[in-house]
Amino acid sequence: MANATTTSGRRWGATVAGIVILGVMLFPLYWMINTALQPESGLLEVSPVPHSLDLSGFTSAITEQGGHLLTSLAVALGAVVICLAIAAPAAYGLAQFRLRGSRTIVFGTLITQMVPGIVIANALYSAYVDMGLVNSYFGLMLADASLGIPFAIVLMRSFMVAIPKEVIEAAEADGAGKLRTFVQVVLPMSRNSLITAGLFSFLYAWSDFMFALTLNTTDDVKPVTLGIYQYIGAHVGDWGSVMAASVLSAIPAAVLLVLAQKYIAAGITGGSIK
Amino acid sequence: MSTTTATAPSVQRTAVQKKTDPARARRRRRLSQWGFIAPAVVFMLLFFGYPLVRNVVMSFQDFSPSTFFDGKSPFNGTDNWSKVFHDDLFGKALWHTIVFTIGSLIGQFGIGLALAVFFTKRFPLNGFLRSLILLPWLVPMVVSGIVWRRILDQDTGVLNSFAETIGLGGATPWLTSPGMALFSVVMVNIWIGIPFNMVILYGGLQEIPKELYEASSLDGASAWRTFRSITLPLLKPVITVVLVLGFMSTVKILDLILALTDGGPADATQTLGTLTYQNSFVQLDFGAGAVVGNVLILISAVFAVFYLRANRSEGK
Question: What is the value of ipTM here, to two decimals?
Answer without folding.
Answer: 0.91
